[in-house]
Structures are given as C-alpha cells and as structure tokens.
Design brief:
Order of helices and strands: EEEHEEHEHEEHEEHE
Structural class: alpha+beta
Number of strands: 11
Largest sheet: 5 strands, antiparallel
Low-confidence stretches: none
Radius of gyration: 23 Å
Number of helices: 5
Distance between the termini: 27 Å
Mean pLDDT: 93
Length: 205
C-alpha cells in the first residue's frame, strides 16, 4: 500500500486517576466523532463533579489526526490541556476526548507538578482503554445481474469486503465498503465482471 489508510482510536470509555499532595485528578477518555460530541459528556462530568475546581480537556479528531482542541479551564496556560493532548499524540490515537477533573488538595503543585499530574492521569486512562485500529474506507454501490453473483461474491470474500446492504430483486444491488488502500485492485477485479457497474457514494450521503 502506498499510503497509511489506518488509524487508532479507543473502542469505549475508560478512566484514569492520579494523586499528588492531596489533589486528585480523575481522567475520562471516550470516543467521539465530532467536536459537538464533547459538550454533552463534558456537561455530565461537570454535573457529577460539581465541587471540582477544574474540568480540563483535549480532543483529537479525524483519521488524518489534523483536528485538535484543548482547554486549561482556569489552570495556568499550558499546564493541563496541552499535556492531555500530548498523551494522545504519544499514543497516536484520534477520534477521542479526554476530560480531567481536578479536586484541589490545598497544596499548590507548581507548573511542572501540574503538567505531570494532567499527563499521568490522561495516560492512565489511555492505558486502561482498549485501543483499536480502524481502516479508512470508501463506500460503493454495485449493480449487476444475478447470473454473475458468484463472481461478485468471490471478489468480496477474497478481499474481505464489508457488505452494508443488499437488494436481490430484479437485478442485484450491493452497498459495500472498500478499504482505500485496496481500492484500485478491488475495482479492477469488479470491472472484469460482465455487466457490473459501480458507483462511489460520498460519506455525507
């Protein structure tokens, strides 16, 4: 394959914790697909931990890992959101958010102490999470006559393609996902089948 068509994310929510000089840092890591997904979870965490002094967070989005945001929520600039994000960068994960709740223990930790605490709690959550690898896929619709069904299904089986939906009425219509890195090879195989047409379906549809 000429380019990397995989990315890593977490399969479900996970938690982590770190304590230092009486302060407690509770980290919540959870998968998200868009920035708006954070708001609801962040509000729920704030409600659950209404007495906590800070609710700092970072997100990283997109298979190309190009979108990221972070928030120090009142902590000194660069001591909370950035260290949380750095944990995501180190683990090379995307499509997730990590929120770290801090209960102040009465003793100031200083800038290095805060950076370490937010980093350690976020890292603990990621270590407790199940990290999974996903592939970048394109969606295609195939149309073909029933007579070539066996040929079509052979390609699908050989290339381990995922069928999203099917309709075997008067003619056959299959909607399936093809991994980007295999696209040219798979479409070439389909093009050799008589009477088969294929159509790319944009992700927004």
């Amino acid at each position: 394959m000429l380019f990397d068509d995989t990315y890593k994310t977490i399969s479900k929510s996970a938690e982590g914790i770190f304590k230092d000089k009486g302060s407690k840092f509770i980290a919540y890591a959870f998968p998200i697909r868009k920035e708006d997904d954070l708001k609801e979870r962040l509000n729920a965490i704030k409600s659950e931990h209404s007495k906590a002094r800070h609710h700092c967070w970072a997100i990283r989005l997109g298979p190309d890992r190009s979108v990221f945001r972070f928030n120090d929520d009142g902590e000194p600039s660069g001591t909370a959101g950035r260290p949380i994000l750095n944990c995501m960068l180190s683990a090379d994960v995307t499509d997730l958010a990590i929120v770290v709740v801090r209960y102040f223990g009465g003793t100031l930790l200083g800038v290095p102490g805060l950076i370490n605490a937010y980093k350690q709690s976020a890292q603990d959550a990621l270590e407790n999470a199940e990290i999974v690898e996903k592939t970048l896929n394109d969606t295609y619709v195939l149309r073909f006559d029933y007579i070539v069904m066996n040929e079509v299904m052979r390609v699908i089986k050989d290339e381990d393609l995922q069928i999203l939906s099917n309709d075997y009425d008067t003619s056959c219509v299959l909607k399936l996902q093809i991994r980007k890195g295999l696209l040219n090879r798979v479409l070439e195989k389909f093009e050799k089948i008589n009477g088969l047409s294929h159509e790319f379906i944009p992700a927004s549809l």
